[in-house]
Amino acid sequence: MKILVCLKQVPHQDARLDVRSDGGWIQEDNIKFEINSYDTYALEEALRVKDATQAEVVVVSIGPERVTQALRTALGMGADRAIHVKDAAADGSDPLGVAKILAAVAKAESPDLIFTGFMSDDGNFATVPPMLAELMGIPHATAAVHIEHKDGALTVSREIEGGAQEVVELTAPCLVAVQTGLNQVRYASLKGIMAAKKKPLDVKSVSDLGLTGQVGAGAAKIKVEKIAPPKKGAGAEMLTGSTDQIASAIVGKIKELGLL
Amino acid sequence: MGTILVVAEIQGAKIREASYELASIAQKLAAAGGHQVKSLVAGKGAAALAEDFAKKGGGDVYLAEHDLLANYCVETASRAIRAAVDACSADIVLLSNTPSGWDVAPRIAAALDVGFVSDCFKIDLEGGKLVFHRRVFNGKLDALITTSSPRLVATVQPGATTPFAGTTSGKVTPLSVEFPAGARARFVAVKVAESKGVDLSKAAIIVSGGRGVGAPEKFPEVIQPLADALGGAMGASRPVVDAGWLPHHYQVGSSGQVVQPKLYIAAGISGAIQHLVGMKTSNFIIAINKDPDAPIFEIANLGVVGDLFEVVPALTKAVLAAKG
Fold it and tell me: Whose CB among A2, A120, A157, B100 lies 3.0–4.6 Å from A165's, allowing a Cys bridge?
């Protein structure tokens, strides 16, 4: 059994979000990056299958040199191999472009299962996983909160509205895009990190994947023109002063509300 | 010119409110751009719903009826939508960003090799060009998106606009959909939420902690004492539950409990959309966060930019002192 896990490296959740001078995205220089939170759960889920069945876990990520760090972390956690699509020609790809790149990698690997995060913490599009499944011609499920394996099929519980779950059965090969919280993500051990240094990390270009001209900014069908902080409404009345002054102002308000 | 296809959604034997919101967006775009609006109603025993939707914004409705469409399943839903898109050569396909919509819509766009924008809260036609507005970075920033694709698929956030209120005249046409043998995705069941633990929806005061609380032991040490002092209940945001710091029944938000207390205090919660949806209708909201740009301050009545580990214990002390 082979599981392909798609990882995205995103700005750290506590990183400063300054808008770039052209307005098109955030300033990404000199900020910390991390593996997209949803994707860490996807990786953990794959590693649990590996622990139980000796499956091979292959991780793939697209992006500049910094992405090596995310892939090394994944290898340190227990993934067997990494594929890094590192090519300026992939820059500016829209979600469909990203899905095409991942589909080219997946077709070469022909995994039994593909695990991804449900969405990314930066773009929040939640678009690439179903697109990848469509391009692969395989079934998928999004927002998975529980996965059971049984004879070449997965029973997946999807989180739907009102705390309810929708249970679907997928025949492998298939793709599951996981919600956060479906497992407890392990940390890379020191031994794991040392072992990761010897694990294969293949670098591929867009032309290696036969996608020249089909991905990247030039081929993107949608474009983020501008990002900006949301329009401010009236907003909150902000309290300032010493901690004690603030506390007594809040108590005054709670009294006013008749709750104290 | 061209055709806008609205993919309606049935929930609990009714067309969802969100589908009428899509109709409202479609009719507005159509009025500005000269499109015609058509819709798809897919389900089982949905003829009356289709007739109704045709009059309430849906326009000409394709009715796809089949046992396999009684419940959402990615393969069958995808087949039905593709059939409707082909039947009217739709240029713009609109779905709601619901668990079904977000699951199937990207597949339709990938299959058609067209542009796709998810979870929009506004779609405008500016100088003949479509402009999509959506949030990024978990609600911290707004993005304005354009497309170079002549055809596209988009999903719209439920509640982003008001439902279509006018009347339309449209006819209902049966749509035949082929389902190949050998399904590789099968609907099994919907499991409703088990009710256990605290019913936060009944609490008059809720004090919730988020990722900013930093560690599981800080909830009983810092958050719970304030909730106790106020005679209220403790809640939490999703990252806290995901990290296993508190069980799921503490979670406030779209995937947890939706609450409307008299007072909601949010400590160390930045205010991701999924949390705001669960508490924004609270009567009075107080937010304590170290980040002055946290979206929670946009919906709070009272805000404190500061360290919750200083402010919350001081507040607990002040509340206890006030009670005497």
Answer: A157
